[in-house]
Specification:
Length: about 400
């Protein structure tokens, strides 16, 4: 009987095709899976006994921003240790290439502190050069790169809030053509972030024509998430007790403010960007936090960061997000869930809760209790410790 390099014995094997798991052994030879057979039938120079643990193909994370962090840590340990073997990068309209020397400062500012790490050399200008930089140093995971619309726009016209001239649009199309031929999988846009929010529909269509020539993908962070709050505020403007606050300098801030003014929505206040450390003081002045994302399957796994901040402060939540975020709110009893993109439901629940201060206090109390019991640092530390101890025990068992 052949002795393979490594045998994963007695595992629950998932083939990645949607089929039910089945018990079996899996053999690895020279770094590749070469055979799958019934439990107990394969022999190996090294045998790892799984005791019924799952064996699955590497996971694909379709929405990441590890474009530069993978240069800093080419082993991509935060991904590999979770079983992720492929990242899709260049999401939300931003990729590190192409870059124009005249706008390199804006690009570095856009990426923030990661762009100043010594491993991020910025010695590329084209998309091909960026991909070559990734490959020549070696990386531990597979990468599928999207060309970011914001990067294309920034390379041609910086952060200008205007439509491109015909010649500028042709330059953007040429840069996108170079990216697609270099190996980009498609185009991404972030239409709620500058400079993507400055682009008109015709500009996006013109660029998508380039992508279609290469049978590429188009991924978008679309416009429209904040209009739901605008419409809910309009439905509640006859109630003097209710005022809405939108914080931050979002992509369509000016357009939303102008729309609110024209429609006479006076119960909606816009607040500029405030330092992170000041946010708790604003949250403390509120009776209810509305957390809302557009209805999109991609957000079913998302948990907006402000969710736990609100729960920890005892601020009840009106959650307009499906999936994991809604499950956390429902299981903790820290708020009310509504369908995303439904201004009628948002207005109705806001009105109802404004008349029930006792319910608001109870929702807030439950949120604080849930954070202490399930998400506090001591609790999370104990969970992590238990996982580490389990891994150590499994390693010792395999060595015996």
């Amino acid at each position: 009987m052949i002795a393979f390099d490594v045998v994963l014995a007695d595992g629950r094997i998932l083939d990645g095709c949607g089929n039910p798991w089945f018990s079996g052994d899996l053999a690895i030879q020279r770094g590749r899976i070469v055979e799958i057979a019934p439990t107990g039938t394969l022999r190996g120079r090294k045998v790892i006994y799984l005791d019924g643990r799952y064996v699955a193909p590497g996971f694909i994370d379709i929405h990441t921003h590890s474009d530069l962090s993978v240069l800093v840590n080419r082993r991509a340990e935060s991904a590999v240790r979770q079983g992720v073997t492929t990242h899709v990068i260049g999401n939300c309209g931003m990729s590190p290439a192409p870059v124009d020397e005249a706008h390199l400062a804006e690009m570095r500012c856009y990426w923030g502190r990661i762009s100043d790490q010594p491993e991020v050399t910025w010695d590329w200008r084209t998309f091909h050069q960026y991909l070559q930089n990734l490959q020549k140093g070696g990386i531990a995971i597979n990468l599928a790169s999207l060309a970011g619309h914001a990067a294309l726009r920034m390379a041609v016209m910086g952060l200008d809030d205007r439509n491109p001239t015909p010649s500028e649009l042709e330059k953007m199309k040429a840069l996108l053509t170079e990216a697609m031929e270099a190996g980009a999988f498609g185009l991404s846009t972030g239409l709620v972030y500058p400079p993507g929010c400055f682009a008109g529909t015709e500009e996006i269509i013109a660029l998508c024509h380039v992508v279609s020539n290469y049978h590429g993908l188009y991924a978008s962070h679309v416009r429209g998430e904040r209009e739901t709050i605008l419409e809910a505020a309009e439905r509640c403007r006859d109630d003097e007790r209710i005022r809405f606050l939108i914080m931050g300098d979002g992509a369509r801030r000016q357009e939303l403010e102008e729309s609110a003014r024209q429609r006479g929505i006076s119960n909606l206040v816009f607040k500029d960007v405030v330092p992170h450390e000041e946010i708790p003081s604003y949250l403390a002045s509120m009776d209810l936090s509305i957390i809302h994302l557009r209805p999109d399957p991609v957000f079913r796994t998302a948990i907006p960061s402000k969710t736990f901040e609100c729960m920890a402060m005892g601020l009840p939540i009106l959650m307009g997000v499906e999936g994991n975020a809604a499950r956390i709110v429902e299981e903790s009893g820290s708020g009310i869930c509504i369908p995303p993109g439904d201004p009628d439901a948002m207005a109705r629940e806001t009105r109802r809760l404004s008349e029930r201060p006792d319910e608001l206090r109870e929702l807030g109390r439950r949120g604080m209790a849930a954070v202490r019991e399930r998400y506090g640092r001591p609790v999370l530390a104990m969970r992590e410790l238990a996982s580490i101890e389990s891994a150590i025990e499994a390693y010792r068992r395999d060595r015996r």
